[in-house]
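Box 3.1 A note on notation
Throughout this textbook, protein chains are presented in two layers. The first layer is the amino acid sequence; the second is a token string describing backbone geometry. Keep the layers aligned when reading.
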Amino acid sequence: MAWPWRRRSRRRMARIAIEGAIGASTRRRVLKALREVEKREFPALLLRIDSPGGTVGDSQEIHAALLRLRETGCRVVASFGNISASGGVYVGVAAETIVSNPGTITGSIGVILRGNNLSKLLERVGIRFETVKSGAYKDILSPDRALSAEERDLLQSLIDSSYEQFVQAVAVGRQLDADVVRQFADGRVFSGAQAKELGLVDALGDEETARRKAAELAGLEADSQPVTLGKPRKQLMGLLPGSGLLRQLGQLLESEVLLAHQPLWLFRP
């Protein structure tokens, strides 16, 4: 027996928004929403991305889940907002069609890993770390000393592997040769118009353009409106004046401190 809400879902499209840095909380929210899209048998998904990217593993899990959703027959169209860079691009190329604003900041294909060498500062204030470790590289990127040449080579190998995964995902998702992708996958950013010339996006337009494309691909009515799933929980702080600025500062703190020492697919100007 088909439940009524399932029949309604087949006549509408779903919408999921990815906003801000991609991390564990975004991954959990989006994956839960994607499972609901599949369960309710929505014929199309409008994926709105307004993100500078984020952690590698979280971006990869969302990307993989989108590919699995497409295997069920759901048509996935991505809409790039103000910015869809680095990990935002990685997630976006899992869609079958990408629509970008002409002025969207996109690209930044690559990997970054940053640590903090505070040895001079620590020496000045008289702080010294005492370290006991099981292996030569166990305290790699420790803030109390500079990297050795061997450690730098080791981390570069890690970055190169992650970079190649990124290039291959873009090449497959956008049906481009990997060597062609490498020519512009050097961390540079593009406008949406430039990205279209490179083959990173299919069409220029706003979210409404993407919605209409999703409706067309799924055979829905042209005015079919999406059902938004996976909305972030509203915080009490969001009701306070200046909450938007506080949220941005929190995201900056997360990217600079909490995500330090991790390979990131993140646009960091």
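The first helix runs from residue 4 to 9. The radius of gyration is 21 Å.
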